[in-house]
Amino acid sequence: MNEKTAFAERLATAMRAAGYEPRPAVLEREFNLRYWGKPVTLQGVRRWLCGETLPKQEKLQVLAEWLGVEPQSLRYGEAAGLQIREARGRWEASISGEERQVLQRYLALPVAQRKVVAQVIEAFSKACSKHPDEGGDGAKER
């Protein structure tokens, strides 16, 4: 089964679980009530339900919120959602409060600024890995 067909099945299942019949007219009406962008057409949502196309990320977010499911689970399946939650749980348990604040501030930056910060971190990482014997953790102390 290809990813579009699998998505269509997950969408129909999520609609049923939320108490809606998985029909294009229902999907079109309910989606457009919640979406602030250009309304989707009956043909567009039919393509989602038939497994011909996938919604863009912003539309997937609206679908997931409406249907009460995680966006990544709707798009990629429950296994993907579990993997993301498990990794997030391990990650969050291993960082301090200060590190969490830094990460939250980083994530709040515009994408262009996050790219710059990522490049700076990458440069520091490369510089430190060239001098592993200086400073116990590979970081140079001055």
Summarize the structure.
This protein is mainly α and 142 residues long.
Using brief descriptors, characterize the structure shown:
142 residues; mainly alpha; 434 Repressor (Amino-terminal Domain); 2 domains; 70% helix; 0% strand; elongated; disordered C terminus; DNA binding
CATH superfamily of the largest domain: lambda repressor-like DNA-binding domains
Low-confidence stretches: 138-142
CATH class descriptor of the largest domain = Mainly Alpha
Query: SS-based structural class?
Result: mainly alpha
CATH fold group of the largest domain: 434 Repressor (Amino-terminal Domain)
Q: What is the arithmetic mean of pLDDT?
A: 83
State the distance separating the first and last CA atoms. Answer: 57 Å
Supply the number of helical segments: 8
Which CATH architecture of the largest domain?
Answer: Orthogonal Bundle
The biggest beta sheet, please? none
Strand content: under 5%
> How many runs of DSSP E, i.e. beta strands?
0
H/E element string?
HHHHHHHH
The outline comes out as: elongated
Secondary structure topology:
Blueprint: H1 3-17, H2 24-34, H3 42-50, H4 57-67, H5 71-76, H6 78-93, H7 97-108, H8 111-129
Helix pairs in contact: 2-3
Explain the overall architecture.
- The chain has 142 residues and is mainly α.
- It folds into 2 domains: 83 residues, Orthogonal Bundle (434 Repressor (Amino-terminal Domain)), CATH 1.10.260.40; 34 residues.
- The protein is 70% helix and 0% strand.
- It contains 8 helices and no strands.
- Helix 2 crosses helix 3.
- The C terminus is likely disordered.
